[in-house]
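4.2 Preliminary Data

To establish feasibility before requesting continued support, the project team ran the inverse folding procedure on a target of 253 residues. The structure was first converted into the token representation described in Section 3, and no sequence information of any kind was made available to the design step. The complete token record follows.
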């Protein structure tokens, strides 16, 4: 009897073990997908167009124009410009076809990066493709006096009234010709262009505004200036004479 009970218990235990082994583990459920973001990038605002110099209109500050630049000197030196001012090829001025007189512009060479600031006082140039004519002094600053023509970018930077002519003083304390309202400081006259350029470079390195002017007899005159104020000419003469004791003041023209 006991053996039957023990056998029945073994059968029951085996059946239970078989049932547990046949049960499958629960399936792993995937996490819910994250919400997708809009892949379309946000549109950036369109930048405002840069102002340009337009014919017949008053150009705003920052307006630009690209084209060719040239320069003019003799025989226009000393003649009246379209603005009524007398043209001085040794001053920082320029001619433009449409910009109002007195407009200040920066002319930057697009091939070398050299730039100069000039005031519009005349009309021109009238050759197709050219947009501005620089004075000799302005051309000299960016090497245009040698190249003749160069690609440039003209940018309007402001406006400046024409300089007022000063009444001549009767008592001159400065060491320069009497009765002159515009003066240069002449450092020297050189027969060799290389020597003249060397002097010009030394002056530029010292912080002076120097220029080479062709003189009679093949001489190259190296000058600093010009100066409209007597006190500025006197100070410049004192500075220059430290290295150039023979420097002197001479009238413009």
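Position-by-position output of the design step:
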């Amino acid at each position: 009897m006991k053996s039957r009970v023990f056998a029945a218990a073994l059968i029951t235990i085996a059946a239970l073990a078989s049932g547990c082994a046949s049960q499958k583990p629960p399936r792993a459920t995937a996490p819910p997908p994250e919400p997708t973001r809009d892949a379309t990038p946000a549109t950036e605002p369109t930048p405002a167009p840069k102002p340009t110099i337009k014919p017949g209109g008053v150009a705003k500050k920052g307006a630009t124009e690209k084209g060719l630049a040239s320069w003019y000197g003799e025989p226009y030196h000393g003649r009246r410009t379209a603005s009524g001012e007398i043209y001085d090829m040794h001053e920082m001025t320029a001619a433009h076809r449409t910009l109002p007189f007195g407009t200040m512009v920066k002319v930057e060479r697009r091939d070398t990066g050299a730039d100069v600031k000039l005031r519009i006082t005349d009309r021109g140039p009238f050759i197709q493709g050219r947009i501005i004519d620089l004075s000799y002094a302005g051309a000299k600053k960016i090497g245009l006096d040698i190249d003749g023509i160069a690609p440039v970018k003209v940018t309007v930077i402001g406006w400046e009234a024409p300089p007022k002519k000063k009444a001549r003083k009767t008592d001159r304390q400065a060491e320069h010709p009497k009765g002159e309202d515009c003066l240069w400081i002449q450092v020297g006259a050189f027969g060799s262009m290389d020597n003249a350029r060397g002097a010009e470079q030394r002056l530029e390195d010292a912080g002076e505004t120097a220029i080479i002017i062709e003189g009679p007899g093949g001489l190259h005159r190296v000058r600093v200036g010009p100066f409209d104020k007597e006190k500025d000419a006197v100070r410049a003469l004192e500075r220059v004479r430290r290295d150039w004791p023979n420097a002197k003041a001479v009238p413009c023209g």
